[in-house]
User: Which sequence fits this backbone?
């Protein structure tokens, strides 16, 4: 199972919005509504931001939103804040009953 | 408060074995499917294995199939990962993670991780 494709890096200024893409296949992203997004700060465990494509767990800011079109899922962060600087990972359930992560995207807040 | 605490990591030579443990508290462990996820130094996340709440179903990544075995003891609120025939590329921080759905679908709680280093 190949990793989902994410841009290596994205950047934005405080207050701006950015979008991180996550491209898979019909055997993962395109075939199921089980895409999740995680935020990971250096030296810390990942934190769930979005599950089942669009849902936010309790306590996660509504500045984070998810969507999907075909085989590409997206995470949008609005109103960028300095503390949003982190690595972001997508994941998807697959047709083999496994899970695949994206390669990760480093967000820099300028 | 939900807590997942991994232990058992350490240094091991190629071909060796290790057993990781994950102790859970703050939730009804026996009701949740669980996973292991790893992260090599400076690299991204890699899903390793999944076990259903009843222990009936297990799935593995191709990279560890046949070498790693996931298990759990619901009476002890614990998840395990038996790792055999370890290779240098198994070096990583290993996290246990609680699944929020009926399969490896998404992980809503994570431990702090335990480092496994396979060195020659």
Assistant:
């Amino acid at each position: 199972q190949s990793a989902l494709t994410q841009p290596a890096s994205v950047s934005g200024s405080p207050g701006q919005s950015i979008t991180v893409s996550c491209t898979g296949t019909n055997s993962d992203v395109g075939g199921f509504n089980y895409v999740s997004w995680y935020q990971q700060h250096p030296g810390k465990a990942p934190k769930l931001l979005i599950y089942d494509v669009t849902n936010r767990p309790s306590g996660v800011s509504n500045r984070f939103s998810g969507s999907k079109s075909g085989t590409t899922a997206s995470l949008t962060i609005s109103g960028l804040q300095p503390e949003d600087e982190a690595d972001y990972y997508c994941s998807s359930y697959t047709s083999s009953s496994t899970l695949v992560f994206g390669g990760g995207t480093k967000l820099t807040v300028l | 408060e939900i807590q997942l605490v991994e232990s058992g990591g350490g240094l091991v030579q190629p071909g060796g074995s290790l057993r990781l443990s994950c102790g859970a508290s703050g939730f009804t462990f026996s009701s949740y499917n669980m996973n292991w996820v790893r992260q090599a130094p400076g690299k991204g996340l890699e899903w390793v294995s999944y076990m259903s709440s009843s222990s009936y179903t297990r799935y593995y990544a191709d990279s560890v199939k046949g070498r790693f075995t996931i298990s759990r003891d619901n009476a002890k609120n614990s998840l395990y990962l038996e790792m055999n025939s370890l290779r240098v590329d198994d070096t990583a921080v290993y996290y246990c993670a609680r699944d929020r759905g009926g399969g490896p679908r998404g992980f809503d709680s994570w431990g702090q991780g335990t480092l496994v280093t396979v060195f020659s």
User: Anything to note?
Assistant: Chain B touches chain A through 24 residues (CB under 8 Å). The first strand of chain B starts at residue 3 and ends at 7. The mean pLDDT of chain B is 97. Chain B has no helices and eleven strands.
